[in-house]
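Summary of Year 1 activities. Much of the first year was spent building the evaluation harness for sequence design. The harness presents a backbone, in tokenized form, and records the residue chosen at every position. We chose the following record to illustrate the format because it has been used consistently in internal testing since the harness was completed.
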């Protein structure tokens, strides 16, 4: 099913209509060549899909009448990941796409002591705009009705202020065994840069309530570690459901 993203501000529930504009409008009319009378399916990013019939097509937008809605339950376990920016943008963008598919709730791009990529203030808006597009595209591709929250780029110290239920820091030199239960909690993972966290950062994280864990004996790249963290949570959720043979 082809999905379009329409923000809540462009949905008029009083008149049962919605409006597509900008890139979504162009994709619907120029690429897919939808016309008046066609059915389209739209998500609002906050849990609802709208089935709507196109009523009018203007030069820069189209209006459609809503005929049905479907809501989607959010993940019971809310997973947030504070992840270091990577040397190359493609690795960070790979993480964005895959994390959305796996149901991430919040994404916190982060700069640590060893983070190499440090975009200037004037470049951050354009990066966020590109990242938002990747997130929306991944939501549509994975048939996900919820848009995760993308935070502005922040420093390690800012992430320390978070008050999630369970805060975890995977660390390559950790000797910890096993993992805590994460189901039905607000979980925050802290993923370091290519050079890893400094020993001082690990200590600081622990003093702010982060629990040290290990992802095994091999060293994972930044984007792989973020995806692996999410996969652990989703696998635990699946294991909690009785198997039907």
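For this record, the design step produced the sequence shown next.
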């Amino acid at each position: 099913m082809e999905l379009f993203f329409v923000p809540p501000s462009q949905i008029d529930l009083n008149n049962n209509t919605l409006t597509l504009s900008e890139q979504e409008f162009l994709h619907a009319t120029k690429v897919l060549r939808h016309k008046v009378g066609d059915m389209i399916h739209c998500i609002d990013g906050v849990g609802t899909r709208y089935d709507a019939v196109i009523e009018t097509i203007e030069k820069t937008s189209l209006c459609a009448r809503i005929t049905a809605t479907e809501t989607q339950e959010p993940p019971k376990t809310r997973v947030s990941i504070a992840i270091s920016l990577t040397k190359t943008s493609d690795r960070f963008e790979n993480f964005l796409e895959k994390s959305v598919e796996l149901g991430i709730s919040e994404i916190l791009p982060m700069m640590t002591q060893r983070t190499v990529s440090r975009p200037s203030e004037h470049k951050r808006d354009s990066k966020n705009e590109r990242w938002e597009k990747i997130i929306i595209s991944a939501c549509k591709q994975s048939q996900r009705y919820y848009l995760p929250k993308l935070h502005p780029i922040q420093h390690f110290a800012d992430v320390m202020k978070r008050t999630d239920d369970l805060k975890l820091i995977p660390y390559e030199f950790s000797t910890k065994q096993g993992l805590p239960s994460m189901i039905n909690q607000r979980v925050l993972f802290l993923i370091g840069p290519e050079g890893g966290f400094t020993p001082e950062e690990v200590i600081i994280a622990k003093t702010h309530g982060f629990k040290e864990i290990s992802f095994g004996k091999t060293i994972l790249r930044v984007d792989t570690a973020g995806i692996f963290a999410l996969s652990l949570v989703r696998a635990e959720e699946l294991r909690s459901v009785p198997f039907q043979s």
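The mean pLDDT is 94. Quantitative recovery figures across the full test set are reported in Table 2.
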